[in-house]
Amino acid sequence: MWWLPQVVDLSGVDLFHAPFNILPAGLKMKTVTTIHDIMWLKHPKWCNPSPYGLIERHFYAHGINRALGRSDAIATVSKATAREITHLRPDAADKVTVTLSGVSPDFHPVEVREDTLASVGIKPGHKFILTAGQFAPYKNHAGAIKAFARAFAARDDIDLVMVQRRNSGAGELASLARSLGIEARVHFTGPVSFPTLLELYSGAMALLHPSLCEGFGNPLAEAMACGCPVVTSDVSAMPEVTNGAALLANPHDTDAIAAALTRIASDDKLAAELSQKGLARASELSWESFAEANLDIYRRVLA
Fold it and tell me: Does residue 116 surpass a pLDDT of 70?
């Protein structure tokens, strides 16, 4: 953040690209910063409500504000983030370019094995909804559990699998599941291997991704690329990323999310249609296009 030019020899560097939200101080060359989202400026408690979050809040706020003010160009991974930036800092509007994220061809439909499902707690004959992402308030995992309980209170053959990169909140969420009477059907995996993740995406009835905000939302693209129907939020970047290939709901409305889940579970034709639309949408999300968009920014800045 503050000492990079003192500890790294940057002589001869014509352009520095800071790829994750913050711009180091003291850079003398042209600079580009990719700002994925500005939640640390607008909704810091959505990121980390713990006491340590107060430190992170000042760290990221300082770095993001420096990037907005001093970068020669700003890249964002969605139009939604671009709108947020220009609304907050109109003076930065002319510097913002959207470089929409991609999805790797490594994400694709695969065969789902019973032993893989058993390893995450799914019994033979059971179906499951998948939620994937780090444990943070903006991911709305509590909302996912509440909506699942509302949708499938009478279906003991449908489970919820929660793959959490940071699963420190699993205990808190398990208590919520227990209070709703669905504890036995909610499985917290923590991090899983890549092959296991592919099987979970490929075998899930739907990805449930009710985030309050996303810069892009990688699980959306990954799930669509694996042919998994998607239920996600009608705010922020989620409608843009899924682009008509998902069911959208207000992330604050448990009934609306539950209704979307129920529709997919009860309508095989709809589920198949969403799967095909998702595959088509994922094929449009190219890392090559992302790279070209960044190269265009470099050329423009250096010119």
Answer: yes
Measuring CA to CA, how many Å separate 185 from each of 115, 126, 149, 153, 198?
17, 10, 10, 11, 21
DSSP 76: E
pTM for the full model?
0.96
CA dist 196 and 184 (Å) reads 21
Kindly give, in sequence order, each residue whose CB lies less than 8 Å from that of residue 288, ignoring residues fewer than 6 positions away. Answer: 102
Q: Is the Cβ–Cβ distance between 160 and 142 less than 8 Å?
A: no
Token representation of residue 251: 């992330």
**Backbone phi, psi, residue 180, to 5°:** -95, 0
Per cent of the chain over pLDDT 90 is: 93
Q: Are 213 and 43 in contact (CB under 8 A)?
A: yes
The whole-angstrom separation of Cα 118 and Cα 76 is 39
Task: Measure the CA–CA gap between 291 and 213, rounded to whole angstroms.
Answer: 24
What distance in Å separates the CA atoms of residue 108 and residue 112, rounded to the nearest whole number? Answer: 12
**pLDDT, tens digit, 9 for 90 and up, residues 273-298:** 999 999 999 999 999 999 999 999 99
Give the C-alpha separation, 288 to 74, whole Å.
19
3-state secondary structure of 25: coil
DSSP 209: E
User: What distance in Å separates the CA atoms of residue 192 and residue 121, rounded to the nearest whole number?
Assistant: 13
- Mean per-residue pLDDT, 208-213: 98
CA atoms of 145 and 131, how far apart (whole Å): 9
**Is 15 within 8 Å of 56 (Cβ atoms)?**
no
What average pLDDT score do residues 177-200 get?
A: 96
